[in-house]
């Protein structure tokens, strides 16, 4: 509150006119960012969730909606979610005893909970058929009443990086909310939308999936004004069955874009071009193809930076940003396209891209005190991103030795063995000096590498601890090590353990 009144006094001072516009913009933005999230009335939650009111006053206010029993404030409304490990219903009564005065529960749990006691305490208790779906309904309501616009991003690869680049660009002009971490599913997306404030003009959201219909549900919740599809590749095949099914699942986004909205599509991806023929929505293409509205020319790698000429419909501008591989240019073009559509000039798009910092676990490069380079790409993995990682390692190491540390690519179903063999063959093709493998499909990767000409003595299969132990014996200064695997493989442990050893005296 003090910041607000200080600003009011500042406005009235005679020297107000001498302050730079930039300083005033910073002050105003600080005030906006410190405003609280939009509060909730019980009646709004009831309407958004389509539930039934079991007890409590319909005009009671709540500061926020929470699903975390460990981190909830007294003025919040608790939604009991049944997850794979924990069921929020088991914590509801303790929360109410500790001062929480509002709760959303599944109708099936009414008989198992002390709802009569809650009624006597005046607790607002709302029951629904499915609390997870009700969470999404509440998020959709919040998105609409906030009056924010939404850019939603999906794709087999690059969606997290594209999200961060887009947020960096749009933040030059707007107050922007962005997805944090991997909050991109039917729980995470609503929690992101609950963070909306009145000041937010745009929300840049990431939509993930592992089964048909999921992208459609998420897009229905956030109602995108702009929908971005980065690419379509062989990911989540265990739940989808084929790359054509992946294409259809990603394409669900197009059907949920607002009627006057725009689809931002990768013109270099043949599957996305098939989707483009099916939609009646406005389309804006990006890529290296002649069909693209936003393109890149003269792509070069200079050290650990990528430079290129960004070609917008009316102007060109040079870009140089920190990125390990050329594939990052496609993500940059997607983000630049969103900025262009929102009227940002080339200079602001350039500033946003050049201010971009890689997401943790996404091609982060470290140089240890022993002069060993580590590329941490452990955030996730699928066949397309594995291929990009192999090519990036080959490019960055130049004449030095390259080491690839590979964990399993998960959720590939019947395609898993063949695709792991293919990655092994690719590693051999790009002249990696040593290959470390861990996981269920380590043998398949090894077989592929040896079939591609790699000697068995240059391949090590073992646990994460065994890999780190052998690495510390084998590596020498100027080596390049890239570590990658699906999130469930927790390959980041190898990075952290090796860095500790390498930086130790």
Counting structural domains, the number is 4
Radius of gyration based on Cα positions: 25 Å
Number of strands: 22
Average residue-wise pLDDT: 91
The percent of residues in helical segments reads: 40-55%
CATH topology of the largest domain: UDP-N-acetylmuramoyl-L-alanine:D-glutamate ligase
Q: Supply the helix-strand structural class.
A: alpha/beta
CATH class of the largest domain: Alpha Beta
What is the general shape?
globular
Main sheet summary:
6 strands, parallel
CATH architectural category of the largest domain: 3-Layer(aba) Sandwich
Uncertain segments are 1-33
Biggest sheet, spatial arrangement of strands: 9-10-8-11-12-13
Distance between the termini: 50 Å
Oligomeric form of this entry? single chain
Strand composition percent: 15-25%
Number of discrete helical segments = 19
CATH superfamily of the largest domain: Mur-like, catalytic domain
Plain-language structure description:
- This protein has 505 residues and is an alpha/beta fold.
- Helix content is 40%, strand content 20%.
- The strands form five sheets. Strands 9-10-8-11-12-13 form a six-stranded parallel beta sheet, with helices on both faces.
- It has 19 helices and 22 strands.
Give me a quick take on this structure.
The chain has 19 helices and 22 strands.
């Amino acid at each position: 509150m003090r910041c607000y009144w200080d600003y009011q006094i500042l406005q009235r001072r005679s020297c107000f006119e001498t302050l730079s516009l930039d300083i005033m913009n910073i002050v105003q933005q600080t005030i906006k960012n410190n405003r609280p999230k939009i509060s909730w009335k019980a009646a709004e939650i009831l309407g958004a969730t389509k539930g039934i009111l079991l007890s409590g006053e319909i005009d009671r206010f709540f500061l926020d909606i929470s699903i975390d029993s460990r981190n909830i404030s007294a003025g919040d409304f608790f939604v009991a979610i049944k997850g794979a490990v924990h069921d929020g219903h088991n914590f509801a009564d303790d929360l109410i005893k500790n001062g929480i005065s509002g709760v959303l529960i599944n109708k099936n749990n009414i008989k198992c909970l002390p709802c009569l006691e809650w009624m006597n305490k005046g607790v607002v208790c709302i029951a629904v058929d499915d609390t997870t779906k009700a969470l999404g309904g509440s998020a959709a309501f919040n998105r609409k009443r906030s009056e924010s616009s939404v850019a939603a991003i999906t794709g087999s690869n690059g969606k997290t990086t594209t999200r961060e680049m887009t947020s960096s660009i749009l933040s030059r002009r707007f107050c922007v909310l962005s997805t944090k971490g991997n909050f991109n599913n039917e729980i995470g997306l609503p929690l992101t939308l609950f963070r909306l404030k009145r000041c937010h003009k745009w929300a840049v959201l990431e939509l993930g999936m592992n089964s048909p219909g999921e992208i459609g549900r998420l897009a229905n919740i956030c109602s995108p004004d702009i929908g971005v599809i980065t690419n379509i590749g062989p990911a989540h095949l265990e739940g989808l069955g084929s790359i054509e099914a992946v294409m259809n699942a990603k394409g669900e986004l197009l059907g949920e874009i607002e009627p006057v909205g725009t689809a931002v599509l990768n013109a270099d991806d043949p599957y996305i071009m098939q989707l483009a023929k099916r939609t009646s929505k406005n389309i804006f293409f990006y890529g290296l193809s002649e069909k693209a509205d936003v393109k890149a020319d003269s792509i070069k790698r200079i050290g650990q930076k990528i430079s290129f000429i960004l070609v917008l419909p009316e102007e060109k501008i040079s870009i140089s940003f920190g990125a390990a591989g050329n594939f990052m240019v496609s993500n940059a073009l997607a983000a630049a396209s969103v900025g262009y559509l929102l009227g940002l000039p080339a200079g602001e798009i350039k500033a946003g891209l050049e201010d971009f910092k890689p997401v943790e676990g996404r091609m982060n490069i470290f140089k240890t005190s022993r002069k060993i380079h580590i590329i941490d790409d452990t955030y996730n993995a699928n066949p397309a991103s594995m291929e990009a990682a192999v090519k990036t390692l080959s490019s960055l190491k130049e004449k030095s030795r390259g080491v690839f540390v590979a964990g399993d690519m998960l959720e590939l179903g019947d395609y898993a063995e063949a695709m792991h063999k293919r990655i092994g063959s690719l590693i051999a093709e790009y002249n990696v000096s040593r290959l470390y493998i861990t996981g269920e499909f380590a043998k398949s990767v090894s077989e592929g590498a040896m079939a591609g000409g790699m000697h068995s003595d240059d391949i090590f299969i073992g646990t994460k601890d065994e890999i780190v132990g052998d690495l510390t014996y084998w590596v020498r200064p100027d080596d390049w090590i890239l570590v990658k695997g699906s999130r469930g493989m927790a390959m980041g442990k190898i990075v952290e353990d090796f860095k500790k050893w390498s930086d130790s005296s």
